Amino acid sequence: MQEAQTLSGATPAAADQAASVSTARQWYVLVVLALVYAMNIADRYVITTVMESIRIDLKLSDSGVALLTGVALALFYVTIGIPVSALADRFSRRNIIAGALSLWSLLTVLTGLSATFTQMLLARIGVGIGESGGTPPSTSMLADTFRPAQRPAALTVYALGSCLGAWIGADLAGQVADLYGWRKAFIALGIPGIVLAVLILLTVREPRRGAMDQGARAVPPPLPLAQSLGFLIRQPATMHLMMGGAVTALWGWGLMWWTPTYLQRAYHLTAGEAGEILGPMHLIAGSLATVLTAVLMASKAMADPRRVLVLMAVVVALITVPSFFIYWTADLGVAKLCLWLFVPAMYFYIGPSFGLLQNIVPAQMRATACALTLLMANIANLVIAPQFVGLVSDHVATGGVADAASLRFALLLLAPTGLWAAYHYWAATRNILAEQRRAEGLAD
């Protein structure tokens, strides 16, 4: 027959065109959600870039500025995150993302307009509430936009938003702070987020849950929150994967939270100069590591999730060594070299972690699983790490006034925790295949 048709009745040309449109739509959603992630991370990095200026302006101790900049955001981020993720498993994820982005962008602007400690504290609490509605519904949407085999690579591309956001918050925001003051840096970051939220409402569609899963089976209704949490806690590989991500965040992002301040104190740099050092590392090395990881995750060699976990364990363990020498050395050149090795390692694990997680939990609890992972990670890197470093720095400071030496000592205590993270990735290899089959409904 001249007019050969597919089983669905469409001609091959029409089927190819539909596939092309579908692929373009998938990539558009992925890019837009990566930009949302970038706005989230940029907000975190601008406050670390100008943290020393905030501390001096408001006359705070190291532990006091850690409370204001990290803990205030995290306490509400982690407490609101799981209820918001439960809503994302039931209602429109697109609308939740757009609303959350609008809220935290507006509160970022208000952070820059804050004149007192209390005003900034309230603004950061609001930012934390808004940011809780960003990543869980985004990763859940991407799981329903890409097939299981594509998810680790897609979630790794999504993680590029982290590199872009860190560069914006470190380099660009640092330059704005040097030119116009630290308050203007927050205002410059908040306004684009509101514009992006409107774009999402106008151009992104809500995907059907479970549409891309094997066999495209109908997704059961969401479980009660307590039941979902109980299920996840009983899965050993899932919990080791979550713990690995949390401790990696404690180690990597915890160190980077204080690194701009450390560079400014130890080498007498401005916020913009510290940002010029760190920004390109995030944008270039972080992006390169993320893209190469995406390519690797899409290869047949990484089809076995156990290989992905072993790779993550080995890389994190090896990079723990230069992470220690960043703060041990008194030579800025050596510190830069170690940072060029350390910064990429903070990014390569994000996409594979989220991708594996989406594959080993049932479709109806993916947003909840992501939120639990983020809760653990953000308690680690926004509450425990900043406050631990700040308290130790204040405690050992000569004359009770924190300086470069006291901050160096605290950061050296935190650096070896990378080895702890590597252990959890290794331990997850024992049960991950069984849990993946269970999530797919293929277990006996």
UniProtKB/TrEMBL annotation:
The keyword Transmembrane applies. PANTHER family: PROTEIN SPINSTER, SPINSTER. PROSITE patterns: MFS. SUPFAM superfamilies: MFS general substrate transporter (SSF103473). The keyword Ubl conjugation does not apply. InterPro entries: MFS (IPR011701), MFS_dom (IPR020846), MFS_spinster-like (IPR044770), MFS_trans_sf (IPR036259). GO terms for cellular component: membrane. CDD domains: MFS_spinster_like. It holds the Pfam family MFS_1. Residues 29-430 form the Major facilitator superfamily (MFS) profile domain. Keywords: Membrane, Transmembrane, Transmembrane helix, Transport. It comes from the Bacteria. Signal peptide: none annotated. It comes from Novosphingobium aerophilum. It is found in: Membrane. It is a multi-pass membrane protein. The chain crosses the membrane at residues 26-43, 64-84, 96-117, 185-204, 237-257, 277-296, 308-328, 334-357, 369-389, 409-428. This is MFS transporter. Its main location: membrane. One of its GO terms (molecular function) is transmembrane transporter activity.
